[in-house]
Specification:
It contains 3 helices and 6 strands; from the N terminus they run E-E-E-H-E-E-H-H-E. The chain is α+β, with helices and mostly antiparallel strands and 141 residues long. The chain has a 6-stranded antiparallel sheet with strand order 5-4-1-2-3-6. Strand 1 and strand 2 form a beta hairpin. It is globular, with a radius of gyration of 15 Å.
């Protein structure tokens, strides 16, 4: 059992030239009916050390399986421990908040990778925070 677990995602990009980068992390813990309701980047209250380890683990995984493209590696995090959940080999809805804090365009990066270009020269400038919220409309009855 994991107490106080959080759903943390690591955005990655990997080209066909062997360059893999973790673009940033986001917290997607607030969910309703398995749908993410609130996403925040970078994850609040997670130490820089844990974020660094998450990103390193995501990069190693992507390198090991030979993945090329933009994707997301998801983890269950509890304090300073984390556990692999899954890899999504695509852009997710939340990618926009990662773009905002990294100063990049992930769609452009995905296209460049598909064309066989290197992404090693793309500058990632981490700054600020970003939030995304999903509005849920339901019939309360």
């Amino acid at each position: 059992m994991v107490r106080n677990g959080r759903h943390i995602e690591v955005q990655i990009a990997a080209d066909r030239h062997g360059y893999v980068v973790a673009v940033g992390c986001r917290d997607c813990s607030v969910q309703r009916r398995h749908q993410k309701v609130l996403e925040e980047a970078p994850p609040p209250g997670v130490s820089d050390e844990v974020l660094r380890r998450l990103e390193e683990s995501a990069v190693r995984l992507v390198e090991h399986v030979g993945y090329h493209g933009v994707g997301t590696v998801e983890f269950l995090v509890s304090e300073d421990e984390f556990f692999f959940l899954e890899v999504n080999p695509r852009l997710q809805v939340e990618h926009g908040i990662t773009e905002l804090i990294a100063g990049i365009d992930l769609v452009e990066i995905q296209i460049r990778i598909a064309r066989g270009e290197s992404i090693a020269d793309i500058p990632i400038r981490r700054r600020g925070i970003a939030l995304e919220a999903r509005v849920c409309a339901e019939d309360p009855d």
